[in-house]
Amino acid sequence: MNISFMAHSLKKLKTNCLTLTCLLILPMQAFAFDSGEIEVTGQGSVVITPDQFSLTLTITERGRVPSKLKALVDKKSNSVISAAKNLGIRGTNITSARVNLRIVEERPSIQVQGIELNRARQGSVFIDGQSINQQSSNVNDHKKPLFELSRQIMVGFNKIDDYDSFLEQIIKLNVSHISSLSMTVEARGEYYQQALLQAISHAKQKAQRMSKQAGRNLGEIVFIKEMSSNHYSPMYAEAMMSDTSPKVHTSQVGSQTITARVSAKFRLKD
């Protein structure tokens, strides 16, 4: 009897606990429905092809006389700008004002750690046309520093074909450095607005499915927040061509995806 009584008590206790748990949960669920709102997120994307391109190249010369270096750099710079204008590129798409001049630290061509001379033959050893005594006293006064002068030129293109033609020309000019190609979209703001509208529609579709599953009807939108920003990082592509190739390489720009995200809140109707 005792065992049967204990089993019956445990069963009754379990039933009471289950009932108490339901009572605790149900008010929370009722409160969620009483709020009469549902909040969701949405995302939209637009795939586009870049239509604006820019290339930055550097012309560098080294020497002892800055004025001569400037003349050499100016000559190459003019050739680069002429090559761009011959392709129909407007002057507003060419920037060539950034110039840099620095002193290059040179390492001595001969490093002498120790030397021994007889006094009678002193002065019979020459380096760079001077005796050791003369050179040790005059080398710091007469040797001019080594300068490096460089100029950066940035050229913008509206067509990728112009970039290929321009690259073919400037390689012949022996420029010092050619950067990667930057690719952007001119009407990016308009495409982002399209993606934003898609994100709102996506949020509404999600809210409709969720409210239907909950047995409610979806009402008007009461709150919307943009979760993304129209911030853009330009894409880059390596500029690669080969003079030994029997066929000239044609650059391919590919595509880009502009994405927008929103958070939206809708009313629920019975």
Task: From the structure above, extract its key features.
single chain; about 270 residues; alpha+beta; Translation Initiation Factor IF3; Alpha-Beta Plaits; 2 domains; 6-stranded antiparallel β-sheet; 3-stranded antiparallel β-sheet; about 40% helix; elongated; SIMPL domain-containing protein; SIMPL/DUF541
Put simply, the count of helices is 5
Largest sheet data: 6 strands, antiparallel
Number of strands: 11
Write the CATH architecture name of the largest domain. 2-Layer Sandwich
The total tally of domains equals 2
Q: DSSP strand (E) fraction?
A: 25-35%
What is the name of the CATH topology of the largest domain?
Alpha-Beta Plaits
Low-confidence stretches: 17-34, 238-246
**SSE class:** alpha+beta
| Overall geometric form | elongated
Radius of gyration: 38 Å
CATH C-level label of the largest domain:
Alpha Beta
Q: Helix amount, in percent? A: 25-40%
SSE ordering:
HEEHEEEHEHEEHEEE
Mean pLDDT: 77
Q: Alpha-carbon distance between the termini?
A: 54 Å
Question: For the record, what is the CATH homologous superfamily label of the largest domain?
Answer: Protein of unknown function (DUF541), domain 2
Organism: Colwellia psychrerythraea
Protein name: SIMPL domain-containing protein
Keywords: Signal
GO biological process, one term: DNA damage response
